[in-house]
Amino acid sequence: MTIKVRNTLSNKKEEFYPQRGNFVSMYVCGITPYDEMHLGHARVYVVFDIVKRHLLRRGYIVKHVQNFTDVDDKIIKRSQEKKMKPSELAQIYIEDYFVQTGRLNILKAEKYPCVTQMIPEIVDFIKELVNKGFAYEIGGDIYFSVKKFKDYGKLSKRNLKDLRAGARVDVCDGKNSVFDFALWKKTKESEPCEVAWESPWGKGRPGWHIECSVMSSELLGDTIDIHGGGQDLIFPHHENEIAQSEAKTGKQFVKYWIHNGFVIINKEKMSKSLNNFFTLKAIFGKYSPRVVRYYLLTQHYSNPLDFSDVGIESAKNTLQGMDNAYLRLISSVRESAVEVTDRDLLDLQENFLNALDDDFNSEKALSYLHELKGLISKGLLTADRERLSQLKKLFEDFAGTSLGIVLPEEQNVDKSLQNLMKERNDVRKNKNWVESDRLRKLIDEKGYKIFDNKDGSSLLVRKI
């Protein structure tokens, strides 16, 4: 089945055909590293991790670039509050990004460019826009003239008459239009010299939108296969990227635009500006990163995700059930099958992959993982080793390779737990069920569940 993608540009589901055979170029907007990551960030990067994993699973070669906006008004303001250099502040949160995304088992991009590494390229890009008449200078600031780009609004489906000045739209009395946006900002006296670079227009720094256009074109070329980010970036950020990139090159900037839905808290978008966000560190203090990742996969990426304790507890319990089934499976069979041959399992595999082919539908893919869990439970009753080895291969392929859920491992338990298990096995042999249940509760209080096998043995599984 051909992969299909809902393209924000056309607002239609389209068949996916990259420009160069099986090579896919993908650019995802990265963080502005001035504060800790929150659940909204996690959703973006888990979504595009699924996109990347499935493209790789289908045999594509993916060059994935994701930037860090390491110079920005927010970084400057926060660094001044903390009495540190902007670069020092940015580096702290760049390092934290890799810690948190590592805990979520997110594959690394091939390149992580920073704005401060590409100032000469940004200046050259702006010079070309000025030379072509798409940009103009006012007192050391350079602005893009929106009215000069005839297709402005094609991504967000807006026109200039309908637009209102909103978040992150630059306001300046001397601009030709309130909707013209900054490509280059003249250095202010209050700003540290570290964030001021020489240019033909005097010392300054890049505007927000120009940075992604330059970094993507330098590393992936003038036309990208996939460009992604949260829905909040459609306007003005991605709209402005299109305008400045296509004005410069005369080529289509992006073939497929993919945008994920917001994380919702009490019917409002989770964001730092609304102060209703949960940092990943705080969430990971209560829930395993495996649970958080699973929870983020339970809705189609384009839909909003309503964060709640009830929802994440449900995800925790579901994942615990899958862990239990998998650990019982690997206690029965150690090796995975070389290939899957049973007809019903081949059909299940096809259904799972087709779900991800259909606009990376992780919600539907999870339903087939649940179906596989049921087959594992039935397979354990029959103890057919060949069947079990095929089930093991499929589970590891579905959960681990495609969905990026870290698989549980058998635990080495301490001596006291081993003694409790031995004592319980002894009383079970004597059919002392009351004492057996008492010992089960003791073990449960220590954070483990017990599964009794048909052969009389028992399996300990750590609770998530």
TrEMBL record:
Annotated motif 'HIGH' region, positions: 31-41
InterPro entries from the UniProt entry: Cys-tRNA-ligase, Cys-tRNA-synt_Ia_DALR, Cys-tRNA/MSH_ligase, Rossmann-like_a/b/a_fold, tRNA-synt_1_cat_dom, tRNAsynth_Ia_anticodon-bd
SMART domains given in the database record: DALR_2
Domain Cysteinyl-tRNA synthetase class Ia DALR: 351-413
Cofactor note: Binds 1 zinc ion per subunit.
GO cellular component terms listed in the entry, alphabetical order: cytoplasm
Entry keyword annotation includes Membrane: no
EC numbers on record: 6.1.1.16
Residue interval(s) of motif 'KMSKS' region: 269-273
Organism domain of life: Bacteria
Any one of the GO BP annotations: cysteinyl-tRNA aminoacylation
SUPFAM superfamilies registered for this protein in UniProt: Anticodon-binding domain of a subclass of class I aminoacyl-tRNA synthetases, Nucleotidylyl transferase
Cofactor(s) named in the record: Zn(2+)
Keywords from the UniProt entry: Aminoacyl-tRNA synthetase, ATP-binding, Cytoplasm, Ligase, Metal-binding, Nucleotide-binding, Protein biosynthesis, Zinc
GO molecular function: ATP binding; cysteine-tRNA ligase activity; zinc ion binding
Subcellular location: Cytoplasm
UniProt feature coiled coil, ranges: none
CDD domains: CysRS_core
Quaternary state and interactors: Monomer.
Family listed: Belongs to the class-I aminoacyl-tRNA synthetase family.
NCBIfam families the record matches: cysS
Protein name, as recorded: Cysteine--tRNA ligase
Source species: Endomicrobium trichonymphae
Originating gene: cysS
